[in-house]
From TrEMBL:
The protein, known as: S-methylmethionine-dependent homocysteine/selenocysteine methylase
Domain Hcy-binding, chain residue ranges per copy: 4-309
Pfam entry (one): S-methyl_trans
Binding-site residues, Zn(2+): 222, 294-295
Superkingdom per UniProt: Bacteria
Cofactor(s) this protein cannot do without: Zn(2+)
Organism field: Parabacteroides faecis
GO BP of this protein: methylation
GO molecular function, one term: methyltransferase activity
Record keywords, A-Z: Metal-binding, Methyltransferase, Transferase, Zinc
Length: 314
C-alpha cells in the first residue's frame, strides 16, 4: 500500500520513473496480433497473453523495486475508450476496471511506491494534426471513459501522445471533472510544436487558463530526447512557464520525426547506453522529474534511466 498519494509523491520526490514500451514489445517480442479496436487492452482475457503482458510490467516493477523510485504504471488502454470498446469483440467486458484490477494485483507483490494511472488518448491518429472535436465535444466524448477510470480506483489519469490542442483541452476539462490528479502528454516535433502547429508554451498556457484544476504537469511521449531537447530549446518554448509546468518524457528510442515514425514498418531502436546518454544530455539542461520509455525501449533502457534518476535523487 502506498504511504503517500500520487500528488504527494509528485510534489516531494525529486524523480519518478514510469514504464517502458508495452505494445511494441508485445508486437515484436511475442508476435501477438493485437485487436483492431482496442489494441492490447483485451489481452488480460487470454491466460497466455495475460502472462506475457504481466511479464513486461513485472520487469518494470522489478526495476522500480531495486531502485526504490516511485513508479507510474499505466493501464494498457490508450485506445480503449467507450466508443472503441463498444465496437470491439470485448463489448460485454468491463475492460477498464479489469485492467486496473490486473495492474493492482501485480502491484501488491511489491513494496516500492507504485501508482496506477488510467491511460487514454485522442480519438484519431496521434501522429496527425486532424481536428476531430471542439473543446465541448472532446469533453463529452472522453468524460464517460474517465468516470469509469475513477470508479475503478486509479490513482491518476494520463492522456497520452495528444497531438492537437482543442482535444487536449477538452480532455483536460473532462479529467478535472473527476477530481483525480492528471497529466497531459503531447506528441511533439523538433520544431517545438504539437502536430497542429501549437507551440508547447501556447498549449500549456491555454489549458492552464481553461481549467480550474490544471494538470499536475505536462509531458511528451513517443519522442526521442534529442527531439525534445530541440523542441524545448525553441525561443517560443524557452519560458518560465514551460520550465515550471513541463516535467516529463517517455522516450522513443528512435530520433526519427513523428511523421517518419508513423510511416515506418519496422521498429526503430538504439541501445540502452546510447539512449540513456541522450537522456542525460536532455536532463542536464531540462531536469524533468518523470522519465520512462516508449517505442523501442525495454527493461535494459528503463534500468539505465532508473540509474540516472537515482543518482540525481541522491
Amino acid at each position: 500500500m502506498n504511504k503517500h498519494s500520487f500528488t504527494e509523491s509528485y510534489d516531494t520526490c525529486p524523480a519518478l520513473l514510469t514504464e517502458g514500451a508495452i505494445v511494441e514489445r508485445l508486437r515484436h517480442e511475442y508476435r501477438i496480433s493485437l485487436d483492431e479496436q482496442i489494441v492490447h487492452a483485451g489481452l488480460i482475457y487470454d491466460e497466455q497473453h495475460k502472462q506475457q503482458l504481466a511479464a513486461i510490467y513485472s520487469q518494470y516493477l522489478d526495476i522500480a523495486e531495486s531502485s526504490r523510485l516511485p513508479l507510474l504504471l499505466m493501464t494498457p488502454t490508450r485506445r480503449a475508450n467507450k466508443e472503441r470498446i463498444a465496437a470491439s469483440v470485448f463489448r460485454d467486458k468491463n475492460i477498464l476496471a479489469d485492467n486496473v484490477a490486473f495492474l493492482s494485483e501485480l502491484r501488491d507483490r511489491y513494496t516500492a511506491p507504485v501508482y496506477i494511472g488510467g491511460l487514454t488518448g485522442c480519438r484519431g491518429d496521434a501522429y496527425s494534426n486532424r481536428k476531430y472535436f471542439s473543446i465541448e465535444e472532446a469533453f463529452s466524448y472522453h468524460l464517460p471513459t474517465l468516470l469509469d477510470f475513477k470508479e475503478s480506483g486509479v490513482d491518476y489519469l494520463f492522456a497520452g501522445i495528444m497531438p492537437e490542442l482543442t482535444e487536449a483541452t477538452g480532455m483536460a476539462k473532462a479529467m478535472e471533472t473527476t477530481g483525480l490528479p492528471y497529466i497531459i502528454s503531447f506528441m511533439i516535433g523538433r520544431n517545438g510544436r504539437l502536430m497542429d502547429g501549437t507551440f508547447i508554451h501556447e498549449a500549456i498556457e491555454a489549458i492552464d487558463k481553461q481549467t480550474s484544476r490544471p494538470p499536475v504537469c505536462y509531458m511528451a511521449n513517443c519522442v526521442h530526447p534529442d527531439v525534445l531537447f530541440e523542441a524545448l530549446s525553441h525561443p517560443m518554448n524557452d519560458t518560465e512557464l514551460v520550465r515550471t509546468r513541463f516535467n516529463g518524457i517517455q522516450a522513443n528510442a528512435s530520433s526519427l520525426s513523428p511523421e517518419e515514425l508513423n510511416g515506418c514498418s519496422c521498429l526503430q531502436s538504439s541501445t540502452a547506453a546510447e539512449l540513456s546518454d541522450r537522456l542525460m544530455t536532455l536532463l542536464w539542461d531540462f531536469p524533468l522529474k518523470i522519465c520512462g520509455g516508449c517505442c523501442g525501449t525495454d527493461g535494459s533502457h528503463l534500468k539505465e534511466f532508473a540509474d540516472i534518476l537515482s543518482r540525481r535523487a541522491g
